[in-house]
Hints:
Elements: H1 7-31, E1 46-47, E2 51-54, E3 59-64, E4 68-73, E5 80-82, E6 87-88, E7 95-96, E8 101-105, E9 109-110, H2 112-142, H3 147-161, H4 165-180, H5 184-209, H6 213-221, H7 226-256, H8 268-279, H9 282-313
Helix pairs in contact: 2-3, 2-5, 2-8, 3-5, 4-5, 5-7, 6-7, 7-9, 8-9
InterPro entries: AA_ABC_transptr_permease_3TM, ArtM/GltK/GlnP/TcyL/YhdX-like, MetI-like, MetI-like_sf
Function: Part of the binding-protein-dependent transport system for glutamine; probably responsible for the translocation of the substrate across the membrane.
Keywords: Amino-acid transport, Cell membrane, Membrane, Transmembrane, Transmembrane helix, Transport
Amino acid sequence: xxxxxxxxxxxxxxxxxxxxxxxxxxxxxxxxxxxxxxxxxxxxxxxxxxxxxxxxxxxxxxxxxxxxxxxxxxxxxxxxxxxxxxxxxxxxxxxxxxxxxxxxxxxxxxxxxxxxxxxxxxxxxxxxxxxxxxxxxxxxxxxxxxxxxxxxxxxxxxxxxxxxxxxxxxxxxxxxxxxxxxxxxxxxxxxxxxxxxxxxxxxxxxxxxxxxxxxxxxxxxxxxxxxxxxxxxxxxxxxxxxxxxxxxxxxxxxxxxxxxxxxxxxxxxxxxxxxxxxxxxxxxxxxxxxxxxxxxxxxxxxxxxxxxxxxxxxx
Length: 315
């Protein structure tokens, strides 16, 4: 029997390959005529810049007990009272004019890229729930003995899989959305759900048909009807087998959600385009956007792998 290579050796080979890839990317970045400005990106993820409070009128600044700033107006307006601040920019008794900086307040604000990430996550989660429901019913209809249900399911699956998602988004927003008065978010969720549901339907169908027909016959012989046998016997087994391709489809859904930016939904991709237009740092922004998508898909992939291990341990 051939001796298995040492595990550490192959791990070292993997590390060397990754180092080589990293060096190649670094060398490639140096070979192009481009000035990298990574320092511009963090503020678009988490903005930590202090907010400056300015005087709304001409007056006199007074610092009272308890570190409270009061600006008295020269024109009889109600005084401006600032109780909480981090940096004081005036002294006691200073004359201030309208627009002069008074204090700075340090705060943490979510940047546009993070808001885009939140929108992408909302789109993906809501679309995922509806896509699973649509795919489950369409998959069951696909193997139904009722010709009407079967033909409707086949038509739906072939029609959706045979047309681009981008075209479907336009149809849902400009045509169906106009008829049903749908907002952008609802139209985007509907398009993603219907599109992904067609692929999930085929995954469900293949998973069910991979179960031995004897399982259904045994369940029916125990007195179960078709629905009980499908819910209690067939679908739990099919779920385990379809988990890996289902995970791949869920990851595709997250990436496909970037297309809803064409109907002006400020998801992660659209937020990236807006940041590029204000920073003129396209490579840095798109690398950051790609990393954020990778965090979402990586977290989902990790969760699916943990679920697979737990289900396999329960067998």
